[in-house]
Amino acid sequence: MDILTLFIIVPIITIIALVFSKGLERSRVVSMIGSIIQLGMAINLMFAYFKERAVNTDIMVFSKDYVWFKSFNIHYNIGVDGISVALILLTAIVVLAGVFISWKTSELPKEFFISLIVLSLGVYGVFISIDLFTLFVFFEIAVIPMYLLIGIWGSGPREYSAMKLTLMLMGASAVLLVGILGIYFNSNADGGALTFNILDIAQVHIPLAAQKLFFPFVFIGFAVISALFPFHTWSPDGHASAPTAVSMLHAGVLMKLGGYGVFRVAMYLLPEGAMTWSNFFIVLSVIGVFYGALAAIKQTDLKYINAYSSVSHLGMVLFALLMLNKTAWNGAILQSLSHGFMTALFFALIGMIYGRTHTRDVTKMSGLLKVIPFISVMYVIAGLASLGLPGFSGFMAEMQIFVGAFQHPDMFHRVATIITVSAIVVTAVYVLRVVGMMLMGPIRNNEFMELEKATWYERVGVILLLIPIVFMGMTPIWLSDMIRESLSPFIERMM
């Protein structure tokens, strides 16, 4: 069995084991063991990647190719580069943390954990796929469980939120499929066979007219899941109704598929289309960055605050990708990783606070630092990482984004960059506002005088997410270098 296919096989085995497990305790243990194995595989993959990359200069390593549908030239074609490896590690950490944070789930626990694992399977599949059709299939596998996870285990208007999310993402998938088929039917422009293979298509010069036509389909199809303005409205509602672990995977992992797809497919295969449409989508991404930050200030619900914060941060990822240079792209990938860990930590802590106070309204809370110090301190750290404080993961990512953006000398790009930079100030406002209202001051509600301290499994989940935030902030060079060397093929396509 190859090292990458294990990321499909192990989740499937975990799902089968969950099907035959009985009782809450066994469901927890099986999910935990399966997730720990996946994390171990992800760490092993990272070290194996470094070892392989030292002797292998191919664009993708650990490649395997198996014929799936011969008549349409569809293959189970897999491989990874530094970007894929980093995102796989992110997924494994967030999934394991999500299992620990969901430890107390008692309503249909078996089905809940199965849905989580199916979601992770789809995400792993996207990150290892080199075949466009296979990538699309795994993309759909990752999206579908969200409807069940919100609709069954959610709270508030969960049916509405689940339906809205599903319709928006399915609509985006339809748009994406048009773009993928457009690429496929132009993959023989140089006289070869039609193919879905990303590396083979990259060797073909797709006609400029086709690139201009299909780039927006591919970009929007992927970017909707990254909450591209004005298609972002599904995300805050989905987060507000979702269970804690689902919000963690939704924001920490699932939304990363959008930026990854834009980069791996739209930018790589349609470079001239990207250059043609970049200014238009830069405007939308800048609006998303600033709008998300301003909207977060106006919210009082903790989940809505973090959801709009995600709209802002992922808008910055799309903004960086549209800069079309190596420095900004490196920052975009780092920002995706940083946001994944940071927002998963935020949602985990919000779930822990809500479970104790039974409210997410910051105006009804104060002085929580005195009664739940561990949770409160972790929330402050997550907030500092969110606003890009040096020493945390967000600083290096945002710095590279802005340096890369300023490499463009024209007025349009400079103004767009200045507006985006100013959003950091707005981010500081809503982060510090929430910290001041919720954690500081006297305890005004007597019911909050004796809140349960963080349990062992909650502490494990939180620390799992905290370690990479600090590690990336203190020692970013090795990760930055790993990503940077994988960007060369993309830069060559832009020349």
Write down the Rg.
Answer: 22 Å
Question: What profile does the largest beta sheet have?
Answer: 2 strands, antiparallel
Helical region count?
21
Helix-strand sequence:
HHEEHHHHHHHHHHHHHHHHHHH
Query: What is the percent of helical residues?
Result: over 70%
Number of strands: 2
The main sheet orders its strands as 1-2
Structural class of the helices, strands and pairings?
mainly alpha
Oligomer: single chain
Instruction: Quote the distance from N terminus to C terminus.
Output: 38 Å
Q: Mean of residue pLDDT?
A: 83
The total tally of domains equals 1
Strand content is under 5%
Q: What would the principal axes of the Cα set say about the shape? A: globular
Q: What are the segments in which pLDDT stays under 50 over at least 5 consecutive residues?
A: none
Write the layout of secondary structure elements.
Blueprint: H1 6-20, H2 24-53, E1 61-69, E2 74-80, H3 82-101, H4 109-128, H5 132-153, H6 158-184, H7 198-201, H8 208-223, H9 234-241, H10 244-254, H11 256-269, H12 271-298, H13 302-321, H14 326-357, H15 368-371, H16 373-386, H17 393-405, H18 411-438, H19 456-474, H20 477-485, H21 488-494
Antiparallel strand pairs: 1-2
Helix pairs in contact: 1-2, 1-4, 2-3, 2-4, 3-4, 3-10, 3-14, 3-19, 4-5, 4-10, 5-6, 6-8, 6-9, 8-11, 8-12, 9-13, 10-14, 11-13, 12-13, 12-18, 13-14, 13-18, 14-16, 14-17, 14-19, 14-20, 16-18, 16-19, 17-19
